[in-house]
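pasting for the record
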Amino acid sequence: MAAQLLEEPARLVCWFTKGTTATVELPEQDNPQLVRDMANGLIGLIHPHGQVDAESSVREFVRATRLFAAAMAKRGHVGGAAELTRPSLVEQLWVTGAAHESMIRRMLAAFDQDTQALRPEVRELVGGRAYNQKRRRDSKPLLPYDETVWSQLQEVCRTEIQEAWSQFRQAHAAAEKGRDPYQHGWSYENLCWWMVRHGPENAVSLGQRVGWTPTMAYHRMGRGADAQRACTALFPSPSVVIAYQLLFGAYTGIVPDGIADLSVEDLEWAGDAAMLVNYLKGRTAEESVTLSPRAVRLVERWLEHSAVSRRFAAQTEASELWLRHDYTHVGVWWTGPSRHESIQGWVRRARLKGSDGKPLRIHRHSIRTSFESHRDRKNWFGSGRGRIDPNHSTTAHGSRATTISRPRPPRRRMRWRRSWRRPRAIFCVRRFRRLC
């Protein structure tokens, strides 16, 4: 069994082929029976029964379920999937996005395949053509970033990582000088001391420990500025993790889904300074790559940077490589890939511009393409092999390229003609005398 539905609270426990597990809570605010029926359908879509084989995909299906159940509750539907009617379902699917409409149809179809509980007209609707067709992407290949943009992107990532690392070291040094803030005041050093020992906090959560209201906590802690500064310095934020992930992709060329799904166990030391990374590529299978020295230094820096965070996260979350904490959600840990909206917000804050002068549009597959393009160009630059067609072997074209590059010696035609005419003239005179 790849997934199981548990109660109190309602949640899905999933096991994936790469050896990881995930527990996803189900929303029960609206239509709890409909949510459970769709969750049972989702179980039939998870590998090996279906093609869903990642925690992020399961969470997106659950999100579609939550939105669908809430929307159907507003339309007056309070029962399970068996009570769905064709008119109400048509109205809801018509205003749903293409991705969520496909998920809803798939979950309902999988639920009906096991139970045969849907009405005949609803079953026909679920198996029919989607109302919102997914837009086809442009078939043009992704172009690599030019030299200026590529260098600027890496420099911005390195700058943000260096600033975050400097703040982390300062906060860690301040924690060694601090004391209990509840007895010695709410200074920056005392707040760092507390968070290193008890995990991330904000002004509200710190005040709740002694019965303060948010207004009292903000007044006594100076609006909580020191608490926010200490928390973001000790526990890397999503913005810092975006910089680490982009720079790691620029250094290694690993596919984006392979980078996002890395865990600490996927890192293997092959000596004192060499590291081997095993990652899963969705289109093929498990692959491995030996990191370059600068990529090894980046991973070492990140493991040390996130060491404090791993002490307070759950075991399943702490085992993931890209662990991050958002100050606005104290105690909530995030793993996996960064959202596209977060990356573009990071680009706007960093003021990154593309070759057209507009904000740079980050496409993580373009980073892999740029890595391979610049790596190949670096290997061929300044070499005599640059005159050979790179689509053919150097063995077949090596001699030809060498011959063409050498200048031919000038031909001495006048001397050759003179040496040829003289013997011919002598031969004709002798023949004439013989005839006479």
